[in-house]
Amino acid sequence: MSEPAAYSALDSQRFGIRVFRARADDVAAVSELTQFARSADLDLLIVRCPVEAVAAAQLLERAGGILTDTLVCYRGPTSSFEPSPTASPCVRLCQETDRAVLEAIARASFAGFFGHYHADPRLDPAAATEGYVEWATSALADASSVVLVSETEGRLSGFLTAKKLDAKTWEILLNGVAPEFQRRGIYAALFREIGCRARAQGASDVLVSTQLANLAPQKVWSRAGLALDHALYTFHWWKA
Asked: How confident is the model over 186-192, as a mean pLDDT?
């Protein structure tokens, strides 16, 4: 019989504690998780719970879980993506020689980000930021991933990573724009390009998610024909 939560080696190494991850869709799953967590060798349990599972979310709160974010997930057809009418900014595949700048952009983009890691005061915010940096650069070595970068005024200005889930679906995972280049349509250009690439390779759908309060990219997604598909609460449960 499998355990109700999975050990997260990356999170554990990053924060120097034993971290487990799980999903709880109903009250029964929450009860199983909390029993497991109290007896298991862990420090932190990260639980995702559908927003419609109100009773499960309330039980997680009563058990001591703290709400750290609300993740909204969008889905849309690649048929709605069209190439940019202009050539600016230039968007291309990331190369290994871009790694150092990619790291710098990711670090600047996610310092103080309001995801569930940064929202938990018991986690080191610098380590949380480095987690996003590692996530961005690790995609360069993943054959199922695509990493795009944008060039503006002769400099790398942003990046976007995506993963091919299967022949028909691509998921956009992570993106960032250097602070000095923000509010110039760079994210929209990266988003448009990944949708066009997915369509050209036969994919019919794209998925993407972010925190509920992160409104700017959601406006880009809506304009591109994506719609809200589902949403998840993220809870952190610390073992006393």
From this structure: 95
What's the sign of the alpha-carbon dihedral 164, 165, 166, 168? Answer: negative
Average pLDDT along the chain:
95
CATH 3.30.470.20 fits 77-231, yes or no: no
Q: Which residues in the chain are classed under CATH 3.40.630.30? A: 77-231
Q: How many CB atoms lie within 10 A of CB 200?
A: 11
pLDDT digits (tens, 9 = 90+) for 79-126: 999 887 766 689 999 999 999 999 999 999 999 888 999 999 999 999
DSSP string over 180-220: GGTTSSHHHHHHHHHHHHHHHTT--EEEEEEETT-HHHHHH
Q: How many Å apart are CA 28 and CA 62, to the nearest integer?
A: 14
3-state class (DSSP) for residue 136: helix
DSSP states of 39-88 as a string? HSS-SEEEEEEETT-HHHHHHHHHTT-EEEEEEEEEEEEGGG----SS--
- The model carries a pTM of 0.93
Please name the residues in contact with 106: beta carbons below 8 A apart, sequence gap of 6 or more. 132, 133, 135, 136, 137, 159, 174, 176
Nearest Cα neighbor of 191 from 169, 164, 159 is: 159
Residue 240 has pLDDT above 90, yes or no: no
Residue 147 CB partners (closer than 8 Å, separation 6+): 93, 94, 102, 136, 139, 140, 159, 160, 161
